[in-house]
């Protein structure tokens, strides 16, 4: 379903899979050992990611038919809602900010943010295109790497989180 996502220290991997028509969230060592089932009760959606403290996983799961972000403890315990809004494909930007994509509106998808406590965090208006929901955070530049372009042809762009200014990184050929 989503992942894999490496922990900050590179020692663990989290991924969600569908087995026998049921979503499961697993953590394992990066050498493939110590596989641990974290959840088999959530209707997981999109990619999971490690929380900055490495004590929990942040992942979207359906809650009354709407994908919301959940905090799932790595060492046991119940998952708790982190973000009540429509949210998919979380990406942590440092320790205090989680970014996520919102609902599709036509061919655009909004990029939203919340603080570590789940409260909304303002961002400049950043729209992603359908099929390009995932983002990566560049800590040194306080920026994101996103995909921009048409359905069948996209390039990488950097977007500044403070100003919303964009700069194209790649110029891939059309083929």
What does this structure look like?
It is a single chain. By secondary structure, this protein is mainly beta. It is 0% helix and 57% strand. It has a 4-stranded antiparallel β-sheet with strand order 1-2-3-4, with no helix packed on it. Strands 5-6-7-8 form a 4-stranded antiparallel β-sheet, with no helix packed on it. Strand 15 (153-160) and strand 16 form a beta hairpin. The mean pLDDT is 91.
Features:
globular, 57% strand, single chain, 0% helix, four-stranded antiparallel β-sheet, mainly beta, 175 residues
Which helices and strands appear, and what pairs or packs with what?
Elements: E1 2-6, E2 12-19, E3 22-29, E4 36-39, E5 44-50, E6 56-63, E7 66-73, E8 80-83, E9 88-93, E10 97-105, E11 108-115, E12 127-129, E13 136-138, E14 143-150, E15 153-160, E16 166-168
Antiparallel strand pairs: 1-2, 2-3, 3-4, 5-6, 6-7, 7-8, 9-10, 10-11, 11-12, 13-14, 14-15, 15-16
Give the percentage of residues in beta strands. over 45%
What string gives the helices and strands in order?
A: EEEEEEEEEEEEEEEE
* Residue windows where pLDDT falls under 50 for at least 5 positions: none
- Please tally the helical runs, counting DSSP H or I stretches of 4 or more residues: 0
Summarize the structure.
The protein has no helices and 16 strands.
